[in-house]
């Protein structure tokens, strides 16, 4: 399957989670927290548990989900903003299942099929879709920017207890905002996992500060854990 076809098929299923805190003069403080992807027509979607958990409790009331809406004749995509609710969390696998709050007749476009993630191997090509550095890009005037990363599976980590896959690693950096992005097989277009975190080198600086140096190592949770959470 062509990468361009995978992107086109799934881009309407990609959601962005943000905090909009009202301020004076009808202004709002905006902060993008991460990516999510719709898994059912009634608006259930998956993201990372840490995307939700790291939001201060007093700010969770301002959490919104932005969903791709209409596209105009110039190719510009407009996003619709909705409230949401938390349904379930899986802290061990860093996953959260949420739902968009809409009238019952509203229908959304879910991502494609989930793959048997235990079958993926090191060296396989994958890609993930999300909203990396979304807050920074919006401050530069780029607007909401859905971006794709094409990489390979660089390592698979298994549980000592039973040998099942705990997570797999990819050879690219998972930026802020990309947490919760679906990871697709570049061959089949099926979802094989969720982008969950990154590994960085910590370099000490002056005044007890640390520099976070990207190490091109990302952590992804396998699709089987998504299936367990939504079933």
UniProtKB/TrEMBL annotation:
Pfam families cross-referenced by the UniProt entry: Trypsin_2
SUPFAM superfamilies: Trypsin-like serine proteases
Domain of life of the organism encoding this protein: Bacteria
Family matches, as InterPro entries: Peptidase_S1_PA
Gene3D superfamilies named among the record's database cross-references: 2.40.10.120
This protein's name: Serine protease
Organism: Candidatus Wildermuthbacteria bacterium GWA2_46_15
Lineage: Bacteria, Candidatus Wildermuthiibacteriota
